[in-house]
Amino acid sequence: MALNDLKAMDMGETEQWAKDLGLDPYRGRQVRHWLFKELAVSFNEMTSLSKSVRSFLSDSACITSCLITQIKISRDGTRKFLFQLEDGALIESVLIPERDHFTVCISSQAGCSMGCRFCLTAKQGLTRNLKAGEIVDQVVQVRRFLKGMTGSPEHLTNVVLMGMGEPLANYEEVVRALRNITGSDALNFSNRRVTLSTSGLVPQMKRLGEEACVNLAVSLNASDDETRNFLMPVNRRYPLKELLDACRAFPLPNRRMLTFEYILISGINDSDEDALKLSKLLSRLRAKINLIPLNPHHGLDMSAPPMERILQFQKILVDKHFTAIIRKSKGQDIGAACGQLRGQWTNNT
Ligand code: SAH
Ligand code: SF4
């Protein structure tokens, strides 16, 4: 954690920070109110504090504030934000309108080192892990934007960690960020509405089950080791058996389910046999399946199957009593769909 990064600190740490400065811990609570309820991005906005207190506080702590450098709007209303971080690193977040609420998809790393064959983020490699404050601030900035746009920041109800990066490869900072995303004294998202997606880092999945209480989505994308090794190098480290054992051990509160994401790629993982194998793999799990037709991007030598094939794949799973939903990704025309984020914009991105 950066020294005294207020967006990364929890309530106890913030109160202690105030105390250490010789102030009443109440000042810490006031600052948190401004940061997370009023969505302030600087000490200057904290008008219930006197100017002299504000200037005193600003000498001993920082407020991470990611700079929105560009926003793109899709035909379907999805908005993609390009953020520039303090050291110049670029990341993206996506604001997705649903029927009666908004979801924000945030990044956990600039780039990604996992090397999945179908993913544009993988092509740039890993630039660096994000700090907890940078992860939290994406939500703050997008909520603030929504407040300006609709006057109703509370309509942003869901957070998914499905943007750039592998969240469990940046475990400590991500879990610290989740505390301020879900904490009732901070951004106060219901933990039922926060989902972390992983490519399957088994040891960290076990820790997450013990240390946090958010929804888990696992990017499966194949139903045998050979195909998964080809698509996702992480499978050589944690093959399907280990991954599914970790899924079975993952604590699920009442009525919650694990989500399995399965990208459908023509001729690679979309046959009837693949669907049957998938149903067997997941048979002893409380699982729902998101089928995602592969999103295209430049230089990708794979394609999505025709709709007929996708529907047949889904039917096999539904016949086996799975909830299997076809998820057409939003924001494809602006490169905002799953797997299309790359954190650098040219005019035709
Ligand atoms: N690293 C994490 C979260 C970010 S990736 C993970 O892999 O789960 C978010 C999702 O995008 C994953 O489910 C991944 O399988 C999916 N994805 C990546 N490239 C894609 C593409 N070209 N088309 C469709 N989905 C893609
Ligand atoms: Fe990383 Fe996820 Fe993309 Fe794989 S799919 S390269 S884990 S961001």
Largest sheet strand order: 1-2-3-4-7-8-9-10-11-12
Q: What is the number of E strands?
A: 12
Please name the CATH topology of the largest domain: TIM Barrel
Question: How can the largest sheet be summarized?
Answer: 10 strands, mixed
Instruction: Report how far apart the termini are.
Output: 33 Å
Low-confidence stretches: none
Structural class: alpha/beta
Number of domains: 2
What is the average per-residue confidence, as pLDDT, rounded to a whole number?
94
CATH class of the largest domain: Alpha Beta
Number of helices: 12
Q: Please report which band the strand proportion falls in: under 5%, 5-15%, 15-25%, 25-35%, 35-45% or over 45%.
A: 15-25%
Secondary-structure map with pairings?
Layout: H1 11-20, H2 25-37, H3 51-58, E1 67-73, E2 79-84, E3 90-97, E4 102-105, E5 109-111, H4 120-123, E6 126-129, H5 132-150, E7 156-161, H6 171-182, E8 194-198, H7 202-211, E9 215-219, H8 225-231, H9 234-237, H10 240-249, E10 258-264, H11 272-281, E11 287-293, H12 307-319, E12 323-326
Parallel strand pairs: 4-7, 7-8, 8-9, 9-10, 10-11, 11-12
Antiparallel strand pairs: 1-2, 2-3, 3-4, 5-6
Helix pairs in contact: 1-2, 5-6, 7-10, 11-12
This protein binds S-adenosyl-L-homocysteine (SAH) and iron/sulfur cluster.
